[in-house]
Amino acid sequence: MSSNVMTKNNTSTKVRFMAQIAMLTTVAEILMLFEIPLPFAPSFYEIDFSEVPILIGCFIMGPAAGVMMEFLKILLNFLINGTMTAGVGELANFLIGCALVVPAGMLYRMRKTRKQAIIGMAVGTLCMAVVGGVLNAFVLLPAYAAAFGGMDAIIAMGTAVNGSISGLSTFVLFAVVPFNLLKGILVSIVTFILYKYVSRVMIHND
After folding, report:
1. How far apart are CA 9 and CA 142, in angstroms?
2. What is the pTM for the complete model shown?
3. What is the DSSP-derived secondary structure letter of residue 174?
């Protein structure tokens, strides 16, 4: 094969990869607009399935692509909806999303089997719960408190829907951690169901 043909093939592959990233990011942003409230957490904690296309893309194209899609999704949402936390919430959401998709993608690339995908998503879900808890305790909740009238007001919102919440630690333990665990599990289930169908029509980064 001539160098010109190889160059054209490489260019075509790169273009398709970028097109796949753009497509999956767009789907993720659309899904981010549809949020489901939960009975055990305040109204600003709502589950969305925007991580599903990103996790699928991470399995297909690798962890770096997953990070890129997370960044583009958060950037698009920032441009469309703005921010109430001076960008702090968006940064934390980016890191929490990466905590799910990056470990899952890294483990799956080591051995591309169904079992490994499940292990990767389970590890990613646990990482998301831990990272989400830490970031909410030290970054997100203080940022929301500054925007919504102080930490006491935030805790009161939690207590109103969950009587077990009486302070910051119980807010994280009984609202934030279950929220991220539930989201990780639901995203993983949907990804597991859809992955083999979506992956058939996309270029893989092997």
Report:
1. 50
2. 0.88
3. I
